[in-house]
Design brief:
317 residues, alpha/beta, Rossmann fold, 2 domains, seven-stranded parallel sheet, 12 helices, 34% helix, binds glyoxylic acid
Length: 317
């Protein structure tokens, strides 16, 4: 049996599954291991089931024991792992695509609704019994007829587009390449970021974090948005320059934000906390029982496939 270090606590049935296939080390207290602890603990192990909270940068990867052959990331995103460093050491990196598309798109839509319809302010008022119905109370932005700009039209972006379309939004997108007509499903393609932003009444950031996308939404690009646009992010915090977005909220260039992901999680930029028009969630994208179970099972299957066949369908490096 292969020896696998599992860095975070998984749902019970997934740990049971892992225990049947591997000699697995579990983290029953769900302690956040430091990078040096992961290096230390992985001695004598064949692979690591990492999560997005494990920072596997080049320095950490270079210190892993030679026995480690796979990092199976319990996430679709893999911005926490230096793919090149892993490749150089002959370590495969895998992720868990598809299984979290629906759950994450649901949160993407919640962010759009929460930001556009002033849910944060409404909750605060309702809790404090500080409201009365009136014709002009907490007037928000209606989705029907507004333009949704999707940055990154992968699986999650496409699902958000589908739901948003059913709500009457007009879908625009920017992606490295134009999708087939079938996948596009009537959405309007922009081959550059500027053109997309200039038509985005609401922006939904859905692209992976990479060297190319870090701080893509910044002081300069925010200016391309129409005045009073809404910015939402269901992907990764690294894609947004927080200071620039908070400044845009201060100036009312941006009407509201809906965020589920942040730079430096869980220590999000405190500037967001003072804004009533910031609808913020604590990285809940894939947090449903069905999805977290499917993700962990896939992360386990990826390791199993890799050791059985020498390769894995979900290998990303
Ligand atoms: C969640 O954020 C993931 O990348 O799976």
């Amino acid at each position: 049996m292969k020896k696998i270090l599992i860095t975070r606590k998984l749902l019970r049935e997934c740990e049971d599954k892992a225990a049947k296939i591997f000699e697995a080390s579990f983290n029953s207290n769900d302690e956040l291991y430091s990078q040096s602890k992961v290096i230390e603990m992985s001695k004598g192990y064949d692979g690591i089931l990492t999560s997005l909270t494990d920072k596997m940068d080049a320095e950490t990867i270079n210190k892993l024991p030679d026995t480690i052959k796979i990092l199976s990331n319990f996430a679709v995103g893999f911005g926490n792992i230096d793919l090149e460093a892993a490749k150089k050491r002959g370590i495969a990196v895998t992720n868990t695509p598809d299984v979290l598309t629906d759950a994450t798109a649901e949160i993407g839509i919640l962010l759009i609704l929460g930001a556009c319809r002033r849910a944060h302010e409404g909750i605060l008022d309702a809790k404090e019994s500080n409201w009365k119905w009136s014709a002009d109370y907490l007037i928000g932005k209606q989705l029907t007829g507004s333009r949704l700009g999707i940055l990154g039209m992968g699986r999650i972006g496409q699902k958000i587009a589908k739901i948003a379309k059913s709500l009457g939004m007009i879908i625009h997108y920017h992606n490295r390449s134009k999708l087939s007509n079938e996948k596009e499903d009537g959405a309007i393609y922009h081959d550059n970021l500027k053109d997309l932003l200039s038509v985005s009444d609401v922006l939904s950031v859905c692209c992976p974090a990479s060297k190319e996308t870090i701080d893509m939404i910044n002081k300069d690009t925010i200016e391309y948005l129409p005045k009073g646009a809404v910015v939402t992010n269901v992907a990764r915090g690294d894609i947004i320059d927080d200071e620039a977005l908070i400044d845009a909220l201060d100036r009312r260039k941006v009407y509201a934000v809906g965020l589920d992901v942040y730079k430096n999680e869980p220590n999000l930029n405190p500037g967001y906390l003072k804004h009533k028009s910031a609808f913020i969630l604590p990285h809940l994208g894939s947090a449903t029982k069905e999805t977290r179970t499917a993700m962990a099972n896939l992360a386990i299957d990826n390791i199993d496939e890799f050791f059985k066949t020498g390769n894995c369908t979900n290998k990303v490096n």
